[in-house]
Amino acid sequence: MEDRKRVKRPRGVAQLISGKCIACGARCQSSCPKDAIEMNEKGEPIIIIANCIGCRKCLKVCPVDALEIYLTPEEQKILAELAAQKKVAAVEEAPEVIEEEAALLVKLKEYRGVWVFVEQTAGEPAGVSWELLGVGADLARARKEELCSVVIGDHVEHLCQESFVFGASKAYLIDDPVFRRYLTEPYYKAICYLVRKYKPEIMLVGATGLGRDLAGAVATELQTGLTADCTGLAIDDRGFLLQTRPAFGGNIMATILTEGTRPQMATVRPHVMPLPAKDSSRKGKIVREMVPFQEADIAVKVLEVIDERKAGEVDVAAADIIVSGGRGMRAKENFSLLQELADELGGVVGSSRGAVEAGWMPAERQVGQTGKTVRPKLYIACGISGAIQHLVGMQDSDVIVAINIDKNAPIFEVATYGIVGDVLKIVPSLTQRVKELRAKGVEFMVERH
Amino acid sequence: MNVVVCLKQVPGTTQVKIDPQTNTLIRQGIENIINPFDTYAIEEGVRLRERTGGKVTAISMGPPQAETALREAISLGADEGILLSDPTFAGADTWTTSYTISAALRKLGQYDLVICGRQTLDGDTGHVGPQLAEMLALPFIAYVSQIEEIADGSLRVQRMVEDGYEVVESPLPAVITVVKEINMPRLPSLRGIARSKSATIPVWGAKELNTDPGRVGLAGSFTRVIRIFSPQRVCQGEIFQGEAEEQVDCLVNRLKDDGFI
Question: CB–CB of B142 and A184 under 8 A?
């Protein structure tokens, strides 16, 4: 014991690995317990060696591993000499950290199961809720825990059974007239009540207008982490939820963890996750709860509801086949070519942002980050170059056909099939061929009769 | 009517890429702007002041250079700007961001309405509005597309929902987020530009706000970014060759095989 104390274990100092810093916003500086990091104009750290104690906190928080520990040759030598006694030293140094982590793990272990919030309007469920049950089932399986739905509304009990059909094995239900129209306050209070009582480990919410609002309020009240618009959800080897989401309009992806708090909350946009298979024979258990607050305490009130859905309006997000046009269509009139093709295939016409901005198509047809996310069986992109904002809205389609004059257009990177050529020539010829084939098919069927 | 507008300075493009050699963000030639969704919040605040008097205070949390965004807000009609900046605020997630802004609003005291944009261009979460309301224990309305009436102690607005809109009433003070349908932001006026140049922008840090060090910035964040990467697209598609006719034939055959025709 005495012997070891004579030689102090060198910890080295932090240093920046040149060219790796992304100026993420001084995460390293804020993690430093010794004020040993200053930021330069570019937002990169400058290590003040005199202050650095080699605690590695900055290394841990750096998202791109741009920091390392520098050891002088002498220090390296001492370390090598100490290596022989390493086993003993490790036992002595480690307990505190392990104890802290163990306490945290015990706390986190109280939280179990995967919950999916079932969004509904007047008893009509939002499709994203069932999509979330699909990915939720994978997470629950990986955690060996149950998958539960959370149903809140007025006359919504039927949604519990529907959630069982899509994979939930239990539903938490609060059914009361106070939830007839969505308002942040009653809904978040109801969810917080359920979470505090039943302690789920993971909670998924659809990234719709309503879902973002609700998830934000719930996470704030519960003081836990929330990651928006996840496109990938998985479980890591510690059992934590890995939440991957796009930033900068999809140009950058980031993987995010909620480490010390529960539940781990994430929102996912509609049509990002596939709809799970239905199994009508499935049953589950309904857990009924009462409204956990007084109605008079709710400050915000809905006075009037105006439904602007026009009769016959096309919902691109619900279509199985979409023929979309972009600026490459060159004029509004040319969209009739797309309509003809869509009619032949039994699909609808969608649009890129460029075509909406040019006034060629109405905004509700727009596919992409600021429009709708779609996941049809067939997506035909005509004269769409494929800006990242468009790609993130359609890249999960089963089959993607790209028709574009520019062979370097990014749309070809996601295409299943591509044709480099003039859309105004290719599309009519394609429509004609489809028409011929279908006519033949009909003849064939008639002959058989 | 005293209105507080929350805004964020963001990179003026989403066209950022990661250098494949160094795995770092390429930031060259990217200028910072006010988050476009927040410009509607500024405009709505200014219109409310024009209707009812009072003042518009713009608040932003960010590094020291975010001061330029507040000066721009003044050029667009805001009366004053306050920058929330401190090394301990860095690396904040939406929870700690909301906490820090709520501390500033508590210090500010006199306000009737807080307006935020619906989401930011870079983070895209849309969470700070509802989280801020929650921190302040104030009523909250998201996606406001029109302020119908605002009078002593009460607010009536239209908010957008998936299939239309709703008319919603709330007591004041309240927090709202606005959508771009609410107005058309004006351009900076000459007088505004002159004022923005001479304006003093106070900086409130951890000391001024008396924030809990365990609840701000990275230290207080419940989420951690553990990896940043460029999305990988493996081009596995089949590009048909030949004359237009042949290409179309190939495509039709494939679509037939896939069962679409």
Answer: yes
In angstroms, rounded to a whole number, what is the distance separating the alpha carbons of residues A233 and A267? 10
Check: complex ipTM more than 0.90: no
| pLDDT < 50 positions in chain B | none
Instruction: Let me know: does B137 contact B155? Beta carbons within 8 Å.
Output: no
Give contacts of B161 with chain A, Cβ < 8 Å: 121, 182, 209-210
Question: Which string of DSSP letters, residue by residue, matches B235-247?
Answer: ---EEE-SSHHHH
Q: Taking the CA atoms of A370, A372, A373 and A374 in sequence, report the sign of the dihedral they define.
A: negative
Whether B64 is in a domain gets the answer yes
The listed CATH number (3.40.50.1220, 3.40.50.300, 3.40.50.1970, 3.40.190.10) that belongs to domain A316-439: 3.40.50.1220
Determine the Cα–Cα distance for residues B41 and B76; give it in Å rounded to an integer: 11
> Options 3.50.50.60, 3.40.640.10, 3.90.550.10, 3.30.70.20; which CATH number does A13-108 get?
3.30.70.20
Strands A114-118 and A37-39: unpaired
Kindly report the pTM of this predicted structure.
0.76
Per-residue pLDDT, averaged over A297-308, amounts to 83
Mean pLDDT of A75-92: 70
Written as six digits, the tokens of A400 are 């993607």
Instruction: Give SS3 for A205.
Output: strand
Q: Does B190 touch chain A (CB under 8 A)?
A: no
Confidence at residue A340, expressed as pLDDT on a 0 to 100 scale: 96
Host domain of residue B23? 2-220
Judged by CB atoms closer than 8 Å, whether chains meet at A25 and B163 is answered as no
- A391 to chain B: closest CA residue: B233
Chain B nearest CA to A201, separation (Å):
14
Whose tokens are 């979460």? That residue is: B125
Whether residue B10 lies within 8 A of chain A, CB to CB, comes out as no
3-state secondary structure of B133: helix
